[in-house]
Design a protein that fits this description.
This protein is α/β, with parallel strands linked by helices. It has 12 helices and 9 strands. The chain has helices spanning 5-12, 16-19, 33-36, 47-52, 119-128, 147-158, 172-175, 183-191, 210-221, 240-252, 276-289, 314-317; strands spanning 81-82, 88-92, 134-138, 165-170, 195-201, 225-231, 256-261, 297-300, 309-310. Bound molecules: iron/sulfur cluster.
Length: 320
């Protein structure tokens, strides 16, 4: 794990001054060595570098960019659990991540509130509402937890009879695949009565490696559905060619593109914003080059809405 910007700069042959780095960012710098090794040395605009480099632009105060852009803090009926959409709840399984993505919509989330001691209340909440059929493990990143803790979580979800699906959202399989190799966890997932979905978070084809491919094969062999969720990021993946390559490479590794999110307007990340109109142009370009199953749904998360809002809606299409 690299937690020093100087160490990263040594690895990728840059000086921090040339890169315009904020050396004391409020959201700490953290990147796994595997991810850092995919960055092209000497390229200051490398799409992976831009995702993890604390830029001085993060200090800009920009209108409409907030600390809680998707209304998480208004949707947690019990600590560590979010209930926004009918039939699904999200358990904040871990307050930690293996990478700190500069665009993260939870970069200001009060993670000190996320504790294992809240889980019993969360499970009681799920038990009491038989409309909940899917539990989503998120965070932070659930793969920041030890294997035994994850297995314990799975066991507790399984005993709630009206839950049929466990969905795991994690960026670890892509950014630190060696940590996501967990034989006992995989065996338990394979034996579970639940439908298991793993949604990985990958924004650029360069993040996908031989190691991620081997890992995804193991999950596929265990009968787990593999999907990807990306964020549309200025300078990182805001071209048709980059997005088409991402979909093709995901598919070659057995993962289907699921969502491409417009940036959540979180304070400190405004420099990543891609406007809706450009998103629309990118989506149309992808449709022309790919079969429908490789075109992710372009969506925005709007606080208080009952589901993710598709970009294709005229109300979004006509906005700047
Ligand atoms: S892995 Fe996900 S939750 Fe963690 S910093 Fe990155 S975007 Fe945020």
């Amino acid at each position: 794990m690299i937690q020093s910007i100087n160490e990263l700069c040594d690895l990728i042959k840059h000086s921090p001054a040339d890169l315009g780095v904020d050396k004391n960012p409020s959201f700490a710098f953290k990147v796994p060595r595997h991810f850092a090794q995919q960055i092209e040395p000497g390229n200051p605009t490398d799409p992976l570098l831009l995702q993890i480099l604390p830029s001085l632009q993060e200090q800009e105060q920009v209108l409409n960019f907030h600390t809680d852009p998707v209304g998480d803090l208004k949707a947690n009926p019990v600590e560590s659990l979010l209930h926004k959409y009918q039939g699904r709840v999200l358990l904040m399984a871990s307050p930690k991540c293996d990478i700190h993505c500069r665009y993260c919509f939870r970069r200001h989330f009060p993670y000190q509130q996320v504790k294992k001691t809240h889980w019993q209340d969360a499970f009681q909440y799920i038990q009491n509402d038989d409309s909940i059929h899917e539990v989503i493990l998120s965070g932070g990143d659930p793969y920041a937890l030890a294997e035994a803790v994850l297995i314990d979580l799975l066991t507790q979800v399984e005993v709630i009879s009206h839950v049929s699906t466990l969905r795991i959202h994690s960026r670890t399989p892509v950014v630190m695949p060696e940590k996501a190799v967990r034989p006992n966890w995989l065996k338990r997932l394979q034996a579970s009565r639940l439908n298991i979905v793993l949604v990985v978070h990958c924004n650029h084809a360069n993040e996908l490696t031989a190691e991620s491919h081997v890992l995804f094969q193991q999950y596929q062999q265990a009968g787990i559905t593999l999907l990807n969720q990306s964020v549309l990021l200025s300078g990182v993946n805001d071209s048709v060619e980059t997005l088409v390559n991402l979909s093709k490479k995901l598919f070659s590794q057995g993962v289907l593109p699921y969502y491409c999110h417009l940036l959540d307007k979180v304070a400190g990340a405004s420099h990543f914003e891609v406007k809706n109109r450009q998103g629309w142009v990118l989506l149309e370009g992808m449709k022309q080059q790919l079969p429908g199953y490789l075109v992710p749904k372009f969506v925005a998360e709007i606080a208080g809405e009952p589901y993710k809002t598709p970009l294709a809606l005229p109300s979004l299409k006509n906005k700047p």
